[in-house]
Amino acid sequence: MGRLFVVNLEGRIYSCKHCRTHLALYEDIVSKSFQSRHGKAYLFSKVVNVSIGVKETRMMMTGMHTVADIFCVGCGSIVGWTYETAFEKSQKYKEGKSVLERSKVSGPGGTSYWVSHAHGHETAHGGGSDADEV
Ligand SMILES: [Zn+2]
Asked: Residue 105 belongs to what domain range?
């Protein structure tokens, strides 16, 4: 069958947690303050190696948006969503950008972030959860 055409990124990479397909670069993060149903999510100016699902208009916290789910081309799992259209002027900056759910991707620091977090050991108590910052 057809071979997947996968783009390889270099640098500080966010990749699919399941199959390690490269999805986005740290330097392309626009905002880390997004939320999804599953927790933290980051807005990226661009993502690669994703297929785009059906467009639909959703009412989100910040107003009406036309969005589409995005899926990893390597394993087909949903990794986030992309913004087609923002109805509110103040949200227009999101158009053409994509959100990756933090729980679906592995960050540049590897997987330890999630492992230690989930099991609750080796994690200093306190609020700082941006363990992948440096
Ligand atoms: Zn994948």
From this structure: 12-130
Which residues are in the CB-under-5-Å shell of ion ligand 1?
16, 18-19, 21, 72, 74-75
Domain count, the chain: 1
pLDDT the model gives residue 112: 42
Q: Cα of 104 to ligand 1 centre, how many Å? A: 9
Residue 35 lies in a domain: yes
Under DSSP, the state recorded for 103 is: G
What is the Cα–Cα distance from 42 to 31, expressed in whole angstroms? 6
pTM listed for this prediction: 0.78
> What number is the average pLDDT over the span 80-109?
95
Q: Distance (Å, rounded) from C-alpha 116 to C-alpha 100?
A: 21
